Structure formats: C-alpha cells, structure tokens
Amino acid sequence: MEANELRIGNAVTYKDKTVIVEAITSDGISVSGYENGRFTPVYLCNVNLKPITITEDVLLRHGFIYLHDKHSFFIHGNEVNIKIDKKIRWIAWCNTVLTNVEIKYLHQLQNLYFILTGKELIEKTE
Fold it and tell me: What is the largest CA-CA distance in the chain?
C-alpha cells in the first residue's frame, strides 16, 4: 500500500491491529490506535501498512445496514447503496449508478464515500 492511496482518517492495519491515519508526510505516516486501553500514536517510516478487506462485518461496523438481502447494504442519511458479493460490483449514489467499480479495501471505500458525500465514514462505537 502506497501513502498516496491514503487520506487522514483512513483505517488500515499495522501489526495486525486496526490503526487510523493521522498525518501523511514525505517521510512517513503517523497512525494512532488503542493499545492496552489507551490511545497510542506511532510515526512510521517505510512501513508496509496493510489494507482492511471489505466484508459484511466491516460494512455493518461502519453504519451500513442490509437493504434487501444479505448482499446489498445501505447507509442511513446518505443515498449510498453498495452491492457486495466477492467484490463490490456497483455503487449507487443519488440515483446514479457507478458501474465497473471494484473496491476491495476499507480505505478505498472511505475515500469514495468522502468524495460523494463530503462526510467521513468511521467505525460506529455503539
């Protein structure tokens, strides 16, 4: 994963733990996560962060709900629909269907969601 694929606020994996991108510089990436019950910032240089694969569980944790079946998801408050099988096949937004869209990773979905809605897609902590 390259730094130019990321935005501040993206969720990625570092050492098998989910972390959030806090800053991106020419030297590296600053991330934060929770470790041992506390907030832990880390600055990484030339470290391979790993993307988080989109699954049903990931979509549900980020506020999506099932729409018609267990393969279609919707998020309240925004007209964004996602149909998922082995890969995301299409995304509909405000009655416009974006076809041939393959989004495999959470950071890609977060980036597209922000472009379409102007809002961050974050994990629900309820």
Answer: 46
> Distance between CA atoms of 22 and 106, rounded to whole angstroms?
16
35 alpha carbon, distance to own chain's centre: 20
Contact 35, 89 (CB under 8 A): no
| 106-119 per-position pLDDT tens digit | 999 899 888 878 88
Predicted TM-score (pTM) of this structure: 0.77
Q: How far is CA 65 from CA 18, 72, 89, 122, in A?
A: 22, 8, 17, 14
22-46 pLDDT tens trace: 888 877 788 887 665 566 667 676 5
Tokens of 68: 């018609």
